[in-house]
Amino acid sequence: MPEQPSLFDAPSEAQEAAEPETVESTPIMKTSGRPLRVLHSSDWHLGRLLYGQKRYEEFEAFLNWMQAQIVEQSIDILLIAGDLFDTTTPSNRAQSLYYRFLNKVAASSCRHVVIIGGNHDSPSFLNAPAQLLKVLDVHVVGAACEDPADEVVLLRDVDGQPEAIICAVPYLRDRDIRQAEAGESLEDKDRKLVVGIREHYAQVCTAAERLRDELAVEVPLIGMGHLFAAGGKTLEGDGVRDLYVGSLALVGADAFPASLDYVALGHLHVPQAVAGCEQIRYSGSPLAMGFGEARQQKSLCLIEFEGRSPRLQLVDIPRFQRLERIKGDQAALEAALDRLAAEGESIWLEVLYEGDQIAADLRQWLEQRVDGTPLVLLRVRNNRVVDRILSRSGDEETLDDLQPAEVFERALVAHQVPDAQQAELKQLFNGLLQQMVEQDHRAE
């Protein structure tokens, strides 16, 4: 594979020429024949459906491709930053894909896999085989630990020498980072959530720094997390659930201690750096989670460490299933369908009808047009059949286009609730949504 452009500055000549101190009281710089190579991935969502369409072949193709990349790129450490599965009760086939992949990686030259739980994952499901997987050098932290030091993972090379320390912080649930108090306001609750997240990362990193000092070896300190950082980009239809509106979104890059040499994040599906900090990144989802991501180039993050200095490149992921969104009146849709069918490629479609005339039999007409072609009709949106109460200025949409918070906000406007009351009602509503998710996790 050709060398891809670096997003980090390479070490200066002075840095490369500098010889590490070997005095007993000074940490020893980790040296080896080549740089340590780390691969960062997240948000696989194994088992996810796209408007009822199963995607197991895509998932399998991606995992096979990534396993080949691990071999070709001589990866030493694989980091998976949460949301391995799409639900807390993954199907047998999704589980099979997961375990077969880990087995193949364990048989490769990749020495370690570190996995953290995401908000879609079941902590108990991920943690159940943790001790067995550890034999394969697969390290799993499915949920926050009572002792933050237990989220610190020391990785050793083939000679048994330390080569990296991972702060494997999973998705932090409300109950993990704060205690409810009688009479506390919603503002107090939000503030405590932010403070709790920051304190948790600080405690884990302090334990990691202490371990590195005790070992007296200058190895990379790598953070992992699954959360929504301030300024993060999402796309329509990507399925990202940000229930902590107004709280988690305020967790900025400064929540991650400066001692971390790289931070591997999950939760957002758009590959991106956080607040312009290239060493704090979301790898993004490997597959398009919705039609809004159809044209997005997916990638993995490959990080090379010379000592503690990271150098990053993005490894583009091939498209395993083509998605297309077409829109227009009946004539425009017919032309687009003919053009796509002529390409002879399997394509999953979202169709938006924008004609002025009522098209009551739109779906039936579309199904007839794609019959006998490699086109698969997954979703049809008819702007003539909508709930007018929910329509935005100039737009037409259906309920499945909206998130619960959006529906609630429009209901407040429709019922002319005074602005002074809306903020408190939104806070209460978001709190109820959060409680529902927490109850769902407790019931698993």
From TrEMBL:
The GO molecular function terms of this record are: exonuclease activity
Q: Where is this region: Disordered?
A: 1-25
Q: Which Gene3D superfamilies match?
A: 3.30.160.720, 3.60.21.10
Q: Give the transmembrane region(s).
A: none
KW Manganese (keyword) present = no
Q: Does the keyword Nucleotide-binding apply?
A: no
- Family designation: Belongs to the SbcD family.
Q: What is known about its subunit structure? A: Heterodimer of SbcC and SbcD.
Question: What does the function comment of this entry state?
Answer: SbcCD cleaves DNA hairpin structures. These structures can inhibit DNA replication and are intermediates in certain DNA recombination reactions. The complex acts as a 3'->5' double strand exonuclease that can open hairpins. It also has a 5' single-strand endonuclease activity.
**Mind telling me what this protein is named?**
Nuclease SbcCD subunit D
- Its gene name is sbcD
